[in-house]
Amino acid sequence: MTGYDASFRVWRGDPDGGALKDFTVEVNEGEVVLDIIHRLQATQAPDLAVRWNCKAGKCGSCSAEINGRPRLMCMTRMSVFSREEVVTVTPLRAFPVVRDLVTDVSFNYEKAREVPSFVPPPGVAPDEYRMQQIDVERSQEFRKCIECFLCQDTCHVVRDHEENKTAFAGPRFLMRIAELDMHPLDAAEESGLDRKRTAQEDHGLGYCNITKCCTEVCPEQIRITDNALIPLKERAVDRKYDPLVWLGDKITRRRS
Amino acid sequence: MTQAERQQWDVVVVGAGGAGLRAAIEARERGARTAVICKSLFGKAHTVMAEGGIAASMGNANAGDNWQVHFRDTMRGGKFLNQWRMAELHAREAPDRVWELETWGALFDRTKDGRISQRNFGGHEYPRLAHVGDRTGLELIRTLQQKIVSLQQEDFRDCGDYEARLKVFQECTVTRVLKDDEGRVGGTFCYERESGRFFVLEAPAVVLATGGIGKSFKVTSNSWEYTGDGHALALLAGARLVNMEFVQFHPTGMVWPPSVKGILVTESVRGDGGVLRNSDGERFMFDYVPDVFKDKYAESEEEGDRWYEDPDNNRRPPELLPRDEVARAINSEVKAGRGSPHGGVFLDVSTRMPAETIRRRLPSMYHQFKELADVDITAEPMEVGPTCHYVMGGVAVESDTAEAIGVPGLFAAGEVAGGMHGSNRLGGNSLSDLLVFGRRAGLYAARYASGPAARTPVPDAQVRAAAAEALRPFSGADAGGRAENPYTLHQELQQTMNDLVGIIRREEEMRQALRKLAELRLRARGAGVEGHRQFNPGWHLALDLRNMLLVSECVARAALERTESRGGHTREDRPAMERAWRRVNLLCRIADPDSDEGQIALERTTTEPIRSDLLSLFDKEELVKYLAEEELYE
Ligand SMILES: Cc1cc2nc3c(=O)[nH]c(=O)nc-3n(C[C@H](O)[C@H](O)[C@H](O)COP(=O)(O)OP(=O)(O)OC[C@H]3O[C@@H](n4cnc5c(N)ncnc54)[C@H](O)[C@@H]3O)c2cc1C
Ligand code: SF4
Ligand code: SF4
Ligand code: FES
Regarding beta strands B198-202 and B5-8, do their DSSP bridges make them parallel or antiparallel, or are they unpaired? Predict the structure, then answer.
């Protein structure tokens, strides 16, 4: 394959408004969308704002919507488009625009703070943690998350429903709760914290109707819905309606 | 010009990678109100890219391991140029720093008996790298990030404010370390990348944890953040940089397609059995084992292969030599015409492990090649070649406290600090370095801030000067000519460093590089940008150029001065390692303004003799190969 000129449409603007701008720009063999955005910066639009870091799919900075689909710019090869196709790059829709392709993702950092942290098991010295590979693997899958927030962007619960943002942590942070809940040594329960219940009551697990859109966009191919959200839901439901569990809860609580 | 807002803190940590976050956690836990400031979003610092693992002699995979063995490997890897006290502290404290991560929620891969699994890596005698697949850096940074959040949650419970005692200023850049009238550290001058707004964080103690300098080179595994900011900030604040001639070229970066050239291929590929071959199909590394390592590496492919199963009775394959050796070997093979189609050599795991195992042990490598190069590493070899990866040189610090020598109140930890790795860093020794010295920097910075260090405000004049410097790119060419495009300047700089001060160096080329750097420096004064201050990448780059030019000059000058080859510094015209140079450190400082040489002046120092109990960890025969004549008879 040799170089060719591609047609790009890139959203440019700020919180007061903006529009798609057309560019014709050179593309070479093996390049990704982020390369093209960088070429625009270096040759045609030096102040084009874009967030990126590793250019290797590891940091989750370069999220944007490419032809309407949430993707990492650095992991989207130009070869997935035909030469004639116009490639449209727009900022993540679920978050407020700062400038051009950069959005304000602070929503995610606020949600991260609301999830109760890991509770270390009391009485276990730091060098005495023992866990089996098979037991850590479930949480490890979720810890592959690079916090690109593509799942947060795509989830219909908040995508066009600003009003749900307060109540709903979004797939990434519901998954974080699942991760801690499945951590073999997390001592939340012993400390009186029921993670499943908080997922349901404080973080809006109930809003999720398992459409799996989050799983589809995840660049780390984490099975967010199947492996985190659904199990969390099942267990949250068990808790709520299983009379025995319910009774057990009451009893321990009364004792303490 | 608007007045810059001022905020008061006890400790300001510049950088939110492994070193910065660990420092911030420590400072906050010691009671200091701590601000962290970083150029990218919280949780995205370069550390996130680390793949292979973190070195610590926990002895989980081989009970023979202990800190002394780790110390020995580190000194050998650095060709005995390391600040031995740092190497000692690092080897002693690394296991505690790793275990501590588990108490904060980290989930490393496990051994059969449930402990932290450890893998082989170049230059490490035993399997020593704790890891999570090949995304160890992500685990490290996420764990530290989540620990910070948990401390903020504590503060929220105490006083209703998450950020009362520990705050992260993300997407902000520091352009100057400020000093008070007495010349003591007084804080940092910063701008918000989003708005371009200026502000000052006042604090008696500043910790630099800004990482490396790779963006001065064309082919690099490093991200845009690696413009040597902390190195330059320290220089401008009066500190010295040590060992700047030592730049690590990682032997295995991607070479194709061009747009991903330089992206790292983790050393775990070799640690897990990957072999290097040239276009003749030969495992050429057997021809490149240097004398100092002759008795430690396998002499035949059969022995090398047996080592993976039975490491006690066989020697390791030479693919696992320290990085500088492997990088040079690849370079020679390509030069001799035995390279791969795109100018690298072949790295193959497909013939060594079942596809399923490869996908499990090296998931991101599998993904990376599949997505970016259409190569299935479970079925075909990768093409790889050297890439600029790490800088051993950095701020000269006190080994125990991480305080910059000669600048009270300034601390440095992580890649920006120098000395720990000597002339070459072993894989896995950076992540452990970040934690060991990040913690120490946080500890001593907090202690310093609570001590008698007076807090006098930074004089207005300094703040004004820093603001004027930061705004200069908007006025473009001073001399009336056409404004220089910062992107063009950057490309020329990268090309210069890559071609003239790269992996193999020659005197005339380094002189040429210094001339080119002088020219670029003049042109950079006229670097101009369009647009406004909101999230303007052209402006940011124009400001970063100052730092890259300073740091590049340090590298070139020190490399020209050191007339030998050692570790990450290889000279074609001086191919031998000279024992007399072992004790010599080259320190860079800002030159007098009226010097016509350049911006950087060099000083030579003789290092402190290695403590005798540490020396006695080595055989006499080995020491003879490294130590200077005088040292042997002391
Ligand atoms: C691809 C890759 C793989 C690696 N794999 C390994 C490995 O397996 N094992 C290992 O031990 N090492 C590895 N390394 C090396 C190791 O990752 C780095 O040396 C280490 O992460 C550096 O950490 P740090 O804390 O010093 O800096 P970083 O993590 O780079 O953090 C620097 C921070 O400083 C901030 N900063 C910089 N300048 C400024 C400024 N002017 N103002 C404000 N903030 C600023 C940045 O925004 C960032 O937050 C690898 C490196 C790469 C590139
Ligand atoms: S599965 Fe749930 S969290 Fe994921 S996109 Fe659908 S509704 Fe949102
Ligand atoms: S779960 Fe996947 S899509 Fe969501 S933030 Fe993490 S990596 Fe991105
Ligand atoms: S730049 Fe890091 S994921 Fe794209």
Answer: parallel
Are B14 and B188 contacting, i.e. CB atoms less than 8 angstroms apart? Answer: yes
Q: How far does the centroid of ligand 4 lie from the alpha carbon of residue A59, in Å?
A: 5
Mark yes or no for CB contact B258/A30 under 8 Å: yes
Query: Tokens at residue B191, please?
Result: 């701008």
Q: pLDDT at residue A249 above 60?
A: no
Judgement on whether residues B371 and B480 belong to the same structural domain of the protein: no
Question: Which secondary-structure segment (H or E) carries B573?
Answer: none
Distances (CA, A) of B52 to A59, A213, B426, B619: 16, 32, 12, 30
Residue B372 and residue B468 in one domain: no
The CATH number of residue B288's host domain is 3.90.700.10
Contact B538, B486 (CB under 8 A): yes
Decide if B58 and A127 are in contact by the 8 Å CB cutoff: yes
CA-to-CA distance for B273 and B353, rounded, in angstroms? 8
- pLDDT recorded at residue B634: 60
Cα(A212) to centroid of ligand 2, in Å? Answer: 5
Q: Cβ A30–B373 below 8 Å, yes or no?
A: yes
Kindly give the distance from the C-alpha atom of residue B328 to the centroid of ligand 4, in angstroms, as a whole number. 30
Residue at a domain's end among B388, B411, B444:
B388
Residue that is last in its domain, among B370, B388, B406: B388
pLDDT for B386: 94
Angle subtended at Cα A15 by Cα A12 and Cα A21, rounded to the nearest 5 degrees: 15
* Closest ligand 2 atom to Cα of A174: 3
DSSP B633: T
Instruction: Tokens for A115, please give them.
Output: 């999830």
Q: Which domain holds residue B536?
A: 464-606
Look at the block and give the residue holding tokens 């993707």: A71
Residue B580 lies in a domain: yes
Determine contact, residues B565/B554, Cβ cutoff 8 Å: no
B477 with B362, same domain: the answer is no
Closest CA to B384 of B309, B297, B455, B323: B323
Q: Enumerate the residues of chain A whose CB falls inside 8 A of the CB of residue B119.
A: none
Q: 């790793």: which residue's tokens?
A: B98
Is B173 an interface residue toward A (CB < 8 Å)? Answer: no
For B87-152, give the DSSP string: HHHHHHHHHHHHHHHHHTT----B-TTSSB-EE--TT-SS--EE-STT-HHHHHHHHHHHHHHHHH
With CB atoms and an 8 Å threshold, state whether A120 touches B531.
no
Give the pair of three-digit tokens for residue B490: 């950057």
B486 shares a domain with B371: no
pLDDT in tens, B18-41: 999 999 999 999 999 999 999 999
B250 labelled catalytic: yes
In a domain, B574, yes or no: yes
DSSP B247-297: EEEEEEEE-SSGGGTT-B--THHHHTT-EEE-TT---GGGGG--GGGGGGB
- B487 found inside a domain: yes
Give the span between the Cα atoms of B554 and B241, in whole angstroms: 8
Residues B255 and B344 in one domain: yes
Domain annotation covers residue B528: yes
Among B46, B135, B240, B270, the one annotated catalytic: B270
Counting as low any pLDDT under 50, the low residues of chain B are 1
Give me the number of domains chain B comprises: 2
What domains are defined for chain A?
Answer: 4-103 (3.10.20.30), 106-255 (1.10.1060.10)
CATH of the domain at B542: 1.20.58.100
CA distance B64 to B45: 35
ipTM higher than 0.85? yes
B224 part of contact set with chain A, CB < 8 Å? yes
- Ligand 1 neighbourhood includes B49 CB (under 6 angstroms): yes
Residue A252: is its pLDDT beyond 70? Answer: no
B231 is catalytic: no
- Cβ atoms of B324 and B571 closer than 8 Å: no
Average pLDDT over residues A48-59: 92
